[in-house]
Design a protein that fits this description.
The complex is a heterodimer. By secondary structure, chain A is of the alpha+beta class. Chain A has 2 domains: 4-208, CV3147-like fold, CATH 3.40.1610; 238-348, CV3147-like, CATH 2.40.390.10. Chain A is built from 11 helices and 18 strands. In chain A, strand 7 and strand 8 form a beta hairpin. In chain A, helix 1 crosses helix 9 and helix 2 (30-41) runs parallel beside helix 5. Chain B is globular, with a radius of gyration of 24 Å. By secondary structure, chain B is an alpha/beta fold. Helices cover 31% and strands 27% of the residues of chain B. Classes of the chains: A alpha+beta, B alpha/beta. The A-B interface holds A 31, 34-35, 38, 67-71, 73-80, 157-159, 178, 181-182, 185-186, 246, 248, 252-254, 257-259, 266, 282, 315-316, 318-320, 322 and B 86, 88-93, 97-98, 117, 119-120, 123, 125-126, 153-154, 187-190, 283, 290, 293-294, 394-399, 489-495, 497-500.
Chain lengths: 359, 513
């Protein structure tokens, strides 16, 4: 399928679907959506290109906003800033990018490539590197593939620009770029290491923008028709309902710059009398049913508002909310031994063997 | 302690006199178009038995839906100049960017964005561009604007840029009304700014309405201070309420819940307030309604107001009833109940008619509904109970059975026993619970900000001190202050053990000396 136009309605759906794929993290896509509404009103348009249309020697920019979601609520994302990060990378490397892709399709970063694409007049590539949201730079398909972690550009809305030219590993990239981000005020627009068309085709997680739009479309349709939005998601994605219940406890703590904690749920319907606990590190990582692990990263654990079907984030989940927990299948790249080293339960400090609920 | 509580609703104005913790007298009168006259009437009616004579009244507490109705109905709104301090950030999402177009067209008198604002840790984001603020003020003056909303990045943490901008604007436009976003609390620039702009849009209406309230009290011969009830079950002194009318948006529902707590003596319970058209279900914690934590839309505008977390369902005393198939609500005859109901000679069967037929209510002409047999009545009540039960179950936050207080004119629809409820409590004066809630309202102070490099305990303690001072500044008696909410949240990614602490304290209104 060649280039296709992304409509504003698609973007409205993307905002809802990407929040579901954010698995509790990634930040709300609302402000990104507002930027796109403004851009479309001014006449800007964005197109979507499947990665199999890429030539091996094309160059692709991978973008994301980095920082604290809370700061993002005050220093509102401006569509031009992410475009500047890509522009800086082009000036630095001399490449001319064929298209722009997302680092992570989960949460607000799903819309960053659209904003850059609108200003730079390039297509968005329908692939990302996580298939969801994850907290760290080495938790990507390209890190699993041992592709080069650098260079990286970071840009601040005031005109600050930095390039991280050389680091030996993805973990080093995480450390160094995090420091820059904090100095900027804990928010920065970044262009990650450029990827060749061949690399994207081999290591990208494909069709994820389309997938997020489809999920969001299903939820919005169900909301409009007053039908079950959870069932609607499961009609477009081969997921499983893990649990339905009510939040009875949320415990959060900040350690090493992450939001860690757990939430406990009390069951309703078929799960009355059964307790679920879900641990998180920015995103939902392991779900336990009556003390036994039932779903874990890289399986996607999505906590959804039982009525609206919209995602509930780890920063905002609160006592008393009625939620449905579903699991969605993980990108296959994370199921290899190497993949599980990067994003399996042990990568998050849980000494349990990965077992997919879809196995 | 002697207080008068008044609830100015869409249909009725209720007034109660409370003395030393007891309801002395409660009256109900139709709401009038002329605000002053309506309140004056209810004060006269309240005092008609002589209960007010020669007595000192410590306060008249009024709850009103005037301000929220103005926004929802797009009436009596003032043009506002929006001044945001925070360039070059957020430029692509200017003030009013997510407002419904019709409301923005009515309210937006122009947008000015200049450099300024702070970082999350208190560093300046950009120095305040004072020359640009002054230039904006001259342009606003030239445009004839008399109301201005000022917002700034991270102003809940450091409001100094907003405060300085107020001085600069006021120097150019002397009679200007200014709302600072930092006076409206929480983190979230767009939502906080929206709240500020709505508030600024209510500047004229607020001034006129509060003046009308004060005139009514004066004309009634009472010598008592006026307080306006707030969304969170507390009150503000008239001067502060005039400045921040948005804080009284949802006070009607809150007053009902607080009144229910007071009349029943329970601090922790579910409450159902059944009116003519809808029933609101909420939860009392420590005597206050549980607040909604998420974004609340007012007239289509996203805000982060302190609002009670309520579930409204279409069940009330005026709900339409059809028998085959059995259906109760959500449509209601509303204020036409005493004309359109069958027991009153009308054609529409309502829940009130069924209650008359069953002998629960003594209203209208019972013979007109005599065709409804006992079994039919029970089926209708069963359906109403099922609707209530479902709503209560959705709002409950614990699996165990909890007590339920039923108030409002339609409380007869709530049976003595419901699944998931340990005990259903009907209270005397329950139909005036909202006015009772207004009469007993307290004063609150809140702090919501980020603390760095403090232990969790020290951070909470620092936040409590700020909240206490704010409550006292708002008119509370320091000796009665108590913390009713304390919440701390460590911040992902931010260095230096950053923790966001929110503390809310309440106290009784300080008695006038």
């Amino acid at each position: 399928m060649p280039l296709r136009d992304i409509t504003l309605d698609d973007i409205e759906s993307l905002a809802v679907g990407a929040w579901v794929l954010g698995t509790g993290g990634g930040g709300s896509p609302y402000l990104g959506l507002l930027n796109m509404r403004a851009l479309y009103k001014e006449g800007y348009r964005v197109q979507l290109l499947p990665s199999d249309e890429l030539a091996d020697d094309d160059w692709i920019a991978a973008v994301s906003n980095m920082g604290a979601p809370l700061v993002g609520q005050e220093r509102l994302t401006d569509s031009r800033t992410i475009a500047r990060a890509v522009d800086l990378m082009e000036r630095h490397t001399g490449y001319r990018f064929r298209g722009i892709m997302a680092l992570e399709i989960g949460g607000g970063n799903s819309i960053q490539p659209l904003m850059a694409a609108a200003h730079l007049k390039r297509p968005v590539i329908d692939s990302d590197m996580m298939g969801r949201a994850y907290p760290e730079a080495q938790m990507t398909s390209v890190a699993v593939g041992d592709l080069a972690p650098c260079p990286l550009t970071t840009v601040d809305v005031r005109g600050l620009e930095s390039v991280v030219e050389k680091v030996p590993t993805w973990k080093w990239m995480e450390r160094v770029s995090r420091k820059i981000c904090v100095e900027y005020g804990s928010i920065a627009s970044t262009c990650k290491a450029p990827r060749s068309g061949a690399e994207v085709k081999k290591w990208g997680i494909h069709g994820t923008t389309t997938k997020a739009i489809a999920i969001g479309h299903a939820v919005r349709e169900a909301q409009r028709n007053h039908t079950d939005p959870i069932a609607a998601i499961l009609s477009v994605e081969p997921g499983k309902v893990l649990y339905r219940g009510k939040v009875v406890d949320v415990e959060r703590r900040a350690t090493e710059g992450f939001l860690r904690g757990r939430t406990r749920l009390d069951g309703v319907d078929d799960w009355r009398g059964a307790g679920m606990e879900i641990n998180f590190q920015n995103e939902w990582i392991v779900a336990w049913l009556d003390g036994k692990p039932v779903a874990m990263s890289p399986d996607l654990i999505c906590v959804l508002d039982s009525v609206s079907g919209e995602a509930v984030g780890t920063e905002t989940i609160r006592y008393g909310q009625r939620v449905t927990v579903i699991a969605l299948p993980p990108p296959p790249v994370f199921l290899s031994e190497k993949g599980l080293q990067h994003v399996g339960p042990r990568a998050f400090g849980y000494d349990i063997e990965f077992k997919s609920i879809f196995a | 302690m002697r207080r008068i509580g008044i609830d100015v609703g869409g249909t009725n104005t209720d007034a109660v006199l409370i003395e030393d913790g007891k309801v002395i007298r409660a009256v109900k009168a139709p709401t009038s178009e002329d605000v002053t006259a309506g309140i004056l009437d209810s004060l006269k009616s309240l005092g008609s038995t002589g209960v007010l004579e020669g007595k000192r009244i410590d306060g008249v507490m009024i709850g009103t839906t005037h301000f929220i109705n103005a926004v929802v109905q797009r009436r009596h709104l003032t043009k506002v100049g929006a001044l945001r301090l925070g360039m070059p950030a957020s430029a692509s999402l200017p003030p009013f960017c997510d407002w419904p177009e019709d409301l923005a067209a009515l309210v937006c008198g122009g947008v000015w964005m200049v450099e300024g604002g702070h970082e999350y840790d208190g560093r300046p984001f950009m120095p305040l561009d004072e020359a640009a603020v002054t230039k904006a003020a001259h342009e606003m003056k030239a445009a004839g604007l008399k109301s201005v909303g000022i917002s700034s990045i991270f102003s809940p943490l450091d409001p100094s840029h907003e405060k300085r901008a107020v001085e600069l604007v006021a120097a150019v436009i002397p009679d200007v009304a200014i709302t600072c976003s930092s006076d409206l609390g929480r983190i979230g620039l767009l939502e906080r700014e929206n709240a500020g702009l709505l508030n600024a849009a209510l500047a004229d209406l607020s001034r006129d309405t509060i003046a009308a309230f004060e005139k009514a009290i004066r004309d009634s011969g009472l010598d008592a201070p006026l307080f306006i009830t707030q969304n969170d079950g507390t009150v503000a002194e008239a001067a502060q309420a005039r400045r921040l009318p948005v804080y009284s948006f949802a006070s009607g529902a809150t007053n009902s819940m607080r009144g229910a707590a007071y009349l029943s003596g329970l601090a922790d319970a579910m409450v159902i307030d059944v009116g003519g058209t809808t029933a609101d279900v909420g939860q009392l914690k420590n005597g206050f309604p549980r607040e909604a934590n998420s974004v609340v839309k007012i007239g289509g505008v996203r805000t982060l107001f302190r609002m009670p977390d309520l579930l409204s369902i279409g069940l009330g005393g005026g709900s339409h009833v059809s028998l085959d198939p059995l259906k109760v609500g959500p449509v209601s005859v509303g204020y036409r109940l005493l004309k359109d109901g069958i027991a009153f000679g009308g054609k529409q069967l309502t829940t009130t008619d069924v209650a008359v037929a069953a002998g629960i209510l003594d209203l209208g002409d019972r013979s007109k509904v005599a065709y409804l047999d006992e079994a039919t009545c029970q089926k209708v009540f069963g359906e109403a109970a099922r609707l209530a039960e479902e709503a209560i179950d959705r709002m409950k936050t614990e699996a165990a059975d909890v007590p339920l207080i039923a108030v409002g004119g339609g409380a007869f629809l709530i049976p003595e026993k419901l699944p998931g409820v340990s005990q259903v409590i009907h209270v005397e004066h329950g139909d005036c619970a909202n006015a009772v809630g207004a009469a007993i309202a307290q004063v609150a102070g809140e702090c919501d900000q980020i603390f760095k490099d403090l232990t969790r305990r020290d951070a909470i303690s620092a936040a409590s001190d700020i909240a206490n001072d704010r409550a006292v500044a708002a008119g509370a008696d320091r000796a009665t202050l108590q913390t009713i909410e304390s919440e701390d949240m460590p911040l992902a990614y931010l260095p230096g053990n950053s923790v966001r602490v929110r503390v809310r304290v309440v106290g009784d209104v300080k008695a006038t000396a």
